[in-house]
Amino acid sequence: MNSSYMDVDGFGPQIKENELIAIIQNHKEDQDRQLAFKTLLQRKSKKIQELAIHVLNDPLYDRRLQLTATNFLGKKASKDGVKNLCKALKNTKSKSLQSRLLNAIGKVGDLDALKALEGMSSKAALFARTLIAYRHGIKGYALPPVDTKRFSKRLKYAAISSIAITPARAKELNEMIETQLDILEAFKHPKFKLNCAGKDLYVMQSDAISEKQLLPTLQEAPCIPMKIFSVNDCPRRAVLSYYIMTHPVPEKDNAISVQLVTSSGKTAYSGEIVLKDNQFELSIKTAIDTVLPATTIKGVFNPKKGLFDFSELLSHLKLDTEKRKVPRKNIS
User: Fold this and answer.
1) Which residue has the higher pLDDT, 197 or 241?
2) Cβ distance 272 to 258 under 8 Å?
3) Cβ atoms within 10 A of the Cβ of 196, count?
4) Which of 10, 52, 124, 132 has its CA 20 to 30 A from that of 85?
């Protein structure tokens, strides 16, 4: 296994699990508590969920530790975990913790969590509801359509590379998948790799959707069939770049809306899938309200063969300088 993907046990194997728990529960140094909690996470302790819930519900714990506990509970769907995330959301006055709780609830929340979020009007709450609805195929929460930028071949542009997952590349990808399960979650089936301006992007399909189920799933209800991940070099970690979120277009037969959405809920790319002859034709462009350069992605996907055939995969070279004036906090 490539060691560059590995994390380090913060305390070392000589410190036992019960000692780490004692540090979290009794130690006054917040830094030691944080390190002890992360060490238990790394060791995949069976007691970590119970401990995370305890930390989240006790106001005496440091905010950073509560954020770490929230992150953990947002990666493993469980009835008890979701219930306590919603409970903490109701009780907290911290804006940073509230934002993190909404993010976690969106990723693992159930129908009860969807009801608990009703009435909340913040952008983070609205996106959390949308994520839950798409994950569970619930209609009535569709992402609104967005305008897209015009792409022109008269301006300078570069080709985006589409790289198939060949056996030669599978070893490296499998190493990443094996050590990044907490990030990849239920999206461990690689479709292909894109390279844009030197940055690798991995398109990963949901484990819950087989190739035979893909087209019917897209036609039936809102869903998140795939996610796109990038990989940081230092440390070697997978990072969620975009959710691929789809829903049927009611007024168009065999048409499906598709949006690439950041983890904060901002649509970066938008387009449409048209189903034809048991395959789908894809057309996506950059959302107009982003700093991203105008991009056009067109192609055909054959689900039986599991292959994309791109006819256009192009991006303008420069960022949108006008959009750069948007305050940083609004850029995802």
Assistant:
1) 241
2) yes
3) 16
4) 10
3-class secondary-structure state, position 49: helix
Rounded alpha-carbon distances, angstroms, from residue 53 to 31, 237, 246 = 19, 26, 33
| Residue range 279-303, pLDDT digits in tens | 889 999 999 999 999 999 999 987 7
In the DSSP assignment, the letter for residue 78 is -
Report which of residues 32 and 248 the model is more confident about.
248
Mean pLDDT of the chain: 84
Joined together, the tokens standing for residue 86 give 């919603």
d(CA 303, CA 84): 39
* Angle, helices 95-108/63-73, rounded to nearest 10 degrees: 10
Find residue 203's DSSP bridge partners.
192, 228
| Burial state string for 276-298 with b = 16 or more CB within 10 A and e = fewer than 16 | eeebbbbbbbbbebbbbbbbbbe
Q: What backbone phi and psi angles, to 5 degrees, belong to 27?
A: -75, 140
Helix (H, G, I), strand (E, B) or coil at 159: strand
Non-local (6+) Cβ contacts of 288 within 8 A are 146, 147, 148, 149
